[in-house]
């Protein structure tokens, strides 16, 4: 087989072609249909051989990355010939891409003495991994999340086809090349790296489908309607109700009322990436139309991103009656600024006084000839720090005379005329529109969108006032009423739907567990399990079965068991290794003999064997993975089908891609798949992923130990989650519904928050300081000698991942873990980094590699 590769060696090295590696047993696609489909999909020439396929004339990437593409396809078996070919292709640095059929991820890892997969991740910059929605592929997403964090040079998208669908060769080929194009290595920040084919349509599992209730239109929409712009789409924002969500959307339940950003929002149904969808507060059910996002995003960007206002500064908002103006008034007051406004009508004056508590002396007439003099008189010659213009540009040059030296002028007017000001004023002038912000900075817009709606949900920002709703049928006659700088700068249109009216349900009853039933807690003798057991006993449980390998061994565990037994509970302490099917079957047989009526399971078993994947042994991989995968599967297989709940618990390593925990993250993702699989069979199941829990009642770890652990896991610092939050979540799952009677999804992520901005500037660096403090407790400060290796400073196999990522980000140099942990002096390592960095000239790089002692 390997001999057949030799005639094509020179062609592969020089042309940067895509090679599809096949196994003789592969029956994924018919050869002729695959050849035709690949040719049609990509204009490639396909040469199919017995064991592999050569594809020439690639056109996917630019010249810089023409030899750096790799494609892999997962299949459920592995043979030695395929492994040899995989090793051979890994050595071909010029390969544009590689798709491997009949190669199972965990089978590659399992091969003792073979580091094919580890070498593969370290040697290529791009892998597209193809999978199926079967249970044995369920661990992939968690595993890949960690791999992405450990290998910064590697781009690793994942495309998943439905297991129940017959995979058409033509469609599969088109889908593959769509993902290749969407995740092009030339793009710095790809929007998504995980894709799924659903019902013959390629979709991203981060989408949200919304039934639209309200859309807003402004002056730019009027210009579009009148043909004054090149755009053909009206409006960019809407309010509606979520009807469906993608598999990876966990923070926006179906039925939520949301605000969303999307071009052409005037539609009965919309689909959008979850980054551009935010939940409304419950109070927004009646005034949701007054919470359109563009006003808040524009005001936040102007006052915080650009002006960076601080307490005591004077802010003049020109045209404050507009939606953006009202949002800006709220944000400026919240920041502690002194607010002055201009308004167009008595109604707007009333809004400023009654709703925003502005003094009458701080409110000025929009078009008054004495506007500038009135403002200067009111501020007593001090000068305005920030002028935010939301109206016409005509009066803005005069208003700049009120600004103090080094003041800021921000123009959000849609007018395109040039702003002429006194050149001696020493001003900062900034101009933008919401449309330009959304189109040119979508990531920043998404971040601001999330921040302002966090404030809205916490009642720190309220709705704008004075907006009128119109039926969408009145759009033609209402649109010309738009007026800049006033409450009529935005119009709201209601889209009517046929259907039932949603009503607020009554609160559910407290959790009441069956006192005659038995509940299994696997791995439940840890700190979290003991707290959960206390809560279950308080909720009526009277028979708890603890399943673990070692049983109750500590004084704390024995004290809890005695406490529960004193309350009349039956406690069964069962020693059982859940990864052994025979032991699980023996446990279930014993339960039947003793007439234990098992009605629920909480699977909390875990074994942490942290290590970078590049140095992880097979034993470490197996020890960390099997309790989550095989153990959970054995419990699913052997326990009764009629249980009330089946709950798996884990950290969210598979979501954040926590370095050093590839096998643990893979196991967590597998538990998520088990939950979806059981749901498909009509059985209960929920998988919970949560962040760092700081306040465990039964946690006896010292603060120093906790700090050292957090120093090794800096990505978990912002993921704060309390014991109360955890217990509330688990109780809701056991009850079968949330407090507002929402059904429980099969997968829940807890503890991901973004609330630092709501707490003021001083706390924005809180988690960074925590991380630095943790490192400070662990490392003794001293100067490093360049003649010593890096590990002499305490850089171990886990910290090396962070160091390697830093080197790649700052120097674009890919240095292996083994080089960093080797005994070579720091000076030699630095020379190697310089020699491998594309940021330095070739002469310096060559000199660094040839004479490392000079550095």
TrEMBL record:
<feature type="domain" description="Ketoreductase">
    <location>
        <begin position="517"/>
        <end position="696"/>
    </location>
</feature>
<protein>
    <submittedName>
        <fullName>Uncharacterized protein</fullName>
    </submittedName>
</protein>
<dbReference type="InterPro" id="IPR036291">
    <property type="entry name" value="NAD(P)-bd_dom_sf"/>
</dbReference>
<dbReference type="GO" id="GO:0004312">
    <property type="term" value="F:fatty acid synthase activity"/>
</dbReference>
<dbReference type="InterPro" id="IPR013154">
    <property type="entry name" value="ADH-like_N"/>
</dbReference>
<dbReference type="GO" id="GO:0006633">
    <property type="term" value="P:fatty acid biosynthetic process"/>
</dbReference>
<feature type="domain" description="Enoyl reductase (ER)">
    <location>
        <begin position="188"/>
        <end position="493"/>
    </location>
</feature>
<dbReference type="InterPro" id="IPR020843">
    <property type="entry name" value="ER"/>
</dbReference>
<dbReference type="GO" id="GO:0044550">
    <property type="term" value="P:secondary metabolite biosynthetic process"/>
</dbReference>
<dbReference type="Pfam" id="PF08659">
    <property type="entry name" value="KR"/>
</dbReference>
<dbReference type="GO" id="GO:0016491">
    <property type="term" value="F:oxidoreductase activity"/>
</dbReference>
<dbReference type="InterPro" id="IPR057326">
    <property type="entry name" value="KR_dom"/>
</dbReference>
<dbReference type="Pfam" id="PF08240">
    <property type="entry name" value="ADH_N"/>
</dbReference>
<dbReference type="InterPro" id="IPR050091">
    <property type="entry name" value="PKS_NRPS_Biosynth_Enz"/>
</dbReference>
<dbReference type="InterPro" id="IPR011032">
    <property type="entry name" value="GroES-like_sf"/>
</dbReference>
<dbReference type="InterPro" id="IPR013968">
    <property type="entry name" value="PKS_KR"/>
</dbReference>
């Amino acid at each position: 087989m390997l001999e057949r590769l030799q005639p094509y060696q020179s062609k592969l090295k020089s042309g940067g072609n895509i090679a599809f590696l096949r196994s003789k047993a592969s029956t994924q696609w018919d050869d002729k249909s695959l050849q035709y489909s690949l040719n049609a999909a990509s204009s490639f020439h396909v040469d199919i051989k017995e064991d592999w396929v050569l594809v020439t004339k690639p056109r996917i990437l630019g010249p810089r990355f023409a030899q750096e593409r790799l494609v892999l396809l997962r299949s459920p078996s592995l043979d030695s010939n395929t492994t040899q070919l995989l090793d051979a292709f890994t050595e071909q640095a010029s390969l544009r891409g590689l798709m491997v059929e009949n190669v199972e991820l965990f089978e590659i890892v399992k091969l003792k003495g073979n580091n094919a997969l580890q070498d593969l991740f370290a040697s290529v910059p791009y892998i597209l991994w193809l999978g199926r929605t079967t249970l044995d592929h369920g661990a992939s997403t968690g595993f890949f999340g960690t791999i992405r964090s450990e290998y910064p040079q590697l781009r690793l998208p994942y495309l998943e086809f439905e297991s129940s669908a017959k995979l058409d060769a033509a469609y599969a080929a088109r889908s593959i090349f769509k993902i290749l194009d969407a995740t092009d290595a030339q793009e710095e920040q790809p929007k998504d790296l995980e894709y799924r084919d659903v019902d013959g349509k390629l979709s991203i599992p981060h989408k949200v489908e919304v039934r639209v209730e309200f859309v807003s239109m402004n002056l730019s929409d009027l210009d579009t309607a009148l043909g004054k712009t090149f755009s053909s789409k009206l409006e960019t924002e809407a309010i509606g109700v979520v009807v469906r969500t993608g598999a990876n959307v966990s923070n926006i339940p179906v039925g939520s009322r949301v605000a969303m950003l999307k071009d052409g929002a005037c539609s009965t149904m919309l689909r959008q990436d979850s980054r551009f969808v935010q939940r409304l507060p419950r109070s927004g059910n009646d005034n949701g139309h007054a919470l359109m996002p563009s006003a808040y995003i524009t005001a936040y960007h102007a006052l915080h991103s650009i002006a960076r206002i601080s307490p005591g500064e004077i802010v003049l908002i020109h045209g404050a009656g507009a939606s953006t103006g009202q949002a800006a008034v709220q944000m400026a007051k919240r920041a502690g600024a002194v607010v002055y406004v201009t308004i167009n009508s008595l109604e707007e004056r009333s809004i400023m006084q009654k709703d925003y508590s502005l003094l009458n002396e701080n409110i000025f007439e929009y078009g008054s000839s004495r506007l500038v003099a009135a403002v200067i008189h009111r501020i007593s010659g001090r000068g305005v720090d920030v002028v935010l213009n939301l109206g016409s540009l005509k009066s803005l040059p005069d208003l700049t005379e009120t600004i103090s030296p080094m003041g800021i002028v921000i123009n959000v007017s849609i007018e395109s005329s040039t702003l002429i000001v006194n050149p001696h004023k020493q001003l900062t002038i900034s101009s933008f529109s919401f449309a330009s912000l959304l189109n040119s900075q979508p990531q920043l817009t998404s971040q601001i969108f999330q921040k302002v709606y966090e404030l809205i949900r916490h009642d720190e920002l309220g709705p704008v006032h004075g907006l009128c709703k119109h039926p969408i049928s009145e759009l033609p006659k209402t649109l010309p009423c738009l007026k800049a700088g006033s409450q009529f700068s935005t119009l709201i249109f209601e889209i009517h739907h046929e259907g039932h009216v949603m009503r607020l349900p009554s609160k559910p009853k407290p959790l009441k567990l069956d006192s005659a039933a038995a509940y299994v807690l696997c791995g439940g003798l840890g700190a979290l399990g003991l707290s959960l057991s206390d809560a279950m006993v308080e909720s009526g449980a009277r028979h708890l079965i603890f399943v673990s390998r070692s049983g109750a061994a500590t004084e704390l565990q024995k004290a809890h068991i005695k406490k529960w037994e004193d309350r009349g509970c039956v406690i069964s302490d069962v020693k059982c290794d859940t990864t052994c099917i025979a032991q699980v079957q023996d446990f279930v047989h014993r339960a039947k003999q003793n007439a234990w009526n098992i009605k629920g399971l909480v699977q909390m078993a875990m074994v942490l064997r942290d290590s970078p994947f590049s140095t992880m042994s097979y034993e470490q991989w197996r020890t960390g993975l099997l309790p989550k995968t095989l153990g959970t599967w054995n419990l699913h297989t052997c326990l009764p089908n009629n249980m009330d709940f089946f709950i798996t618990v884990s950290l969210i390593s598979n979501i954040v891609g926590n370095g050093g925990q590839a096998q643990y993250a893979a196991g967590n993702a597998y538990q998520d798949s088990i939950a979806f699989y059981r749901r498909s069979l009509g059985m209960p199941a929920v998988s919970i992923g949560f962040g760092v829990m700081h306040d465990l009642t039964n946690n006896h770890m010292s603060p120093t130990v906790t700090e050292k652990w957090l120093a090794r896991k800096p990505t978990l610092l912002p993921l704060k989650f309390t014991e109360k939050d955890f217990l509330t979540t688990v109780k809701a799952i056991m009850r079968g519904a949330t407090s507002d009677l929402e059904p429980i999804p099969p997968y829940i992520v807890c503890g991901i928050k973004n609330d630092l901005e709501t707490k003021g500037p001083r706390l924005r660096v809180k988690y960074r300081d925590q991380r630095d403090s943790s490192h400070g407790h662990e490392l003794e400060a001293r100067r490093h000698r360049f003649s010593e290796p890096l590990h002499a400073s305490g850089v171990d196999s886990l910290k090396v991942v962070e160091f390697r990522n830093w080197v790649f980000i700052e120097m674009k140099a890919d240095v292996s873990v083994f080089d960093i942990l080797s005994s070579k002096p720091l000076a030699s390592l630095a020379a190697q980094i310089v020699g491998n960095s594309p940021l330095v000239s070739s002469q310096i790089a060559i000199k660094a590699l040839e004479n490392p002692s000079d550095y």
